[in-house]
Amino acid sequence: MSGAALEFRDAGMRCDAGTRVDIGSLQIPAGRFTVLLGRSGCGKTTLLNLAAGLQTPTHGSVFYDGQPLTTEAPHSALIFQHNNLFPWMSAAENVAFALRNQGLAHSAAGTRARQLLEEVGLTEFADRRPAVLSGGMRQRIALARALAMKPRLLLLDEPFGALDAQTRRLMQRQLQRTWQASGATVLMVTHDLQEALLLADRIVLMASSPHGHVAQLLEIRLPRPRQASDDDFLRLQQRLDDFLTAETRLAEHLQAD
Fold first, then answer.
1. What is the tens place of the pLDDT at every residue in 97-123?
2. Which of 63, 70, 115, 218 is deepest in the core (most CB within 10 A)?
3. Domain named ABC transporter: which ranges (predicted)?
4. pLDDT tens, 154-187?
């Protein structure tokens, strides 16, 4: 299945507490890897929830493949920082559960679940429960479970934020391979500048003052595979860092050095 296209048209959220996020007009092209980057409180997760159909904009509209999105986004999967696996199920059972929910017979679901675990390098851990596995392994199970749904739209909310640096880099490479093989549209929230540049085709920079909004849209044309030590990579990383530093100074009323 090809990736889904998303479009925000004058969309935003206003809450009773006065919180306001104005996304305005934003397109998420089909099959592309888009990263949402910004300091805490700028509306990244709100935008992700609107894309998933978990929240409805208080003004404007969200469109999924040209149709208004009024319920949960079809053919989509969402992965959080905390994997939300069923602790009483084995790795294979967790993945098979998603397949059975799609109508696959019990035996066929079990077979396919083990194939998906093989794709993320967890064949020998298929019968283990999450409690005895590392954080990286649990996130790989969550990724396999998401892939079991054959999503056209994969939504990621800080999926590697709780992992150590080495495991995080391995998971980034796994995610990139998975995305390239699936053709899905990916929309990901992260605070990690290097992670954003390693993975993204496009980076949506969000600002929080005077309210959450899309400030800039960067097309990342660095060739893959990317090296964090390359000069062009480092220049873009510095540009992102300058943006976030300026945002923090503005929000915290700090003087420039």
1. 888 887 888 888 899 899 888 888 889
2. 218
3. 6-233
4. 999 988 887 788 888 888 888 888 888 889 999 9
Residues near 103 by beta carbon (within 8 Å), at least 6 away in sequence: none
pLDDT tens-digit series, residues 199-257: 999 999 999 877 888 999 999 999 998 999 999 999 999 999 999 988 887 766 555 55
Q: Is residue 108 part of a domain?
A: no
Domain count, the chain: 1
CATH, residue 238: 3.40.50.300
In contact, 144 and 117? CB cutoff 8 Å? yes
Fill in the amino acid letter for 160: F
Identify the domain containing residue 217 by its residue range: 6-75+151-252
The Cα–Cα gap between 106 and 218 comes to 45
